[in-house]
Write a structure and sequence with these properties.
With 293 residues, this protein is of the alpha/beta class. It is 45% helix and 14% strand. The strands form 2 sheets. It has an 8-stranded parallel β-barrel with strand order 1-4-5-6-7-8-9-10, surrounded by 7 helices. The protein has a two-stranded antiparallel sheet with strand order 2-3.
Length: 293
Amino acid sequence: MRKPIFTGSGVAIVTPFTNEGTDYNKLSELIEYQIREGTDAVIIVGTTGEASTMYDEEHKAAIKFTVEKVAGRIPVIAGTGSNHTVHAIELSKYAQEVGADAILTVTPYYNKTTQKGLYEHFKLIAKSISIPAVLYNVPSRTNLNIAPETIKALSEIDNIVAIKECNLAQVGDVVNLCGEDFTVYSGEDGAIVPFLSMGAKGVISVMANIIPKDTHDIVAKYLSGDVEGSRKLQLKTLDLIKALFAEVSPIPIKAAMNLLGMNVGSCRLPLVDMSEKNLELLKNELKKYGLLQ
């Protein structure tokens, strides 16, 4: 049996920016906050981390900094995905070199490919490194789904050990095909419990940036047998989640963090500030949740 990289909640952590670049003092604070609140893994420079607007030098520096800051306390999973296979290999090799525990590699976007192309893309990335690889299937962003049969074939590669899955409709098929030896993580904050009920072992979460303990507890309660406690906590989060995804992520999560005094800066263009209407919605939900006065 291949051991899961983590069970529980992995935070898809934001990248705090200033006009000069990445704010490493703030990133350090955020990492310490997450570890203190019980988060089980840190996912750096993923979608929520705005990796697509970072130069390679910034991207790599953020991975290295996070590995050194976490210092083995919890796993660090580095986003190294690209729609250019050779570029993804380069980033993945670097992540391994600086000590990341695993990589997260997204389905190719824009140029897309066939299911055979997906298999070849992910196979070459995985075989270029020896650390574990987590696939990332997010059809809403890539307009391309990794079919369960393709995931099954990829799971037979030794170091492709998990998937961040956003397609709830196929989770059961993935679990049935790949078995307990392959870990599924929910990529949907609003459907953690449904994913867990189908055999997932955790979540890679946006909302964990502001409610890390509750996100961790949804999973921990479920896996310990307290399904009702997990369900109630998931239900408590739903209105907040709707506000956190009222506009394209990570616009609302960064706005929420700034409202809560975390001072993580703005998103980079083409992402812009929230509309006033949605910002008011977000403020109201933060107040209802007890996070904002």
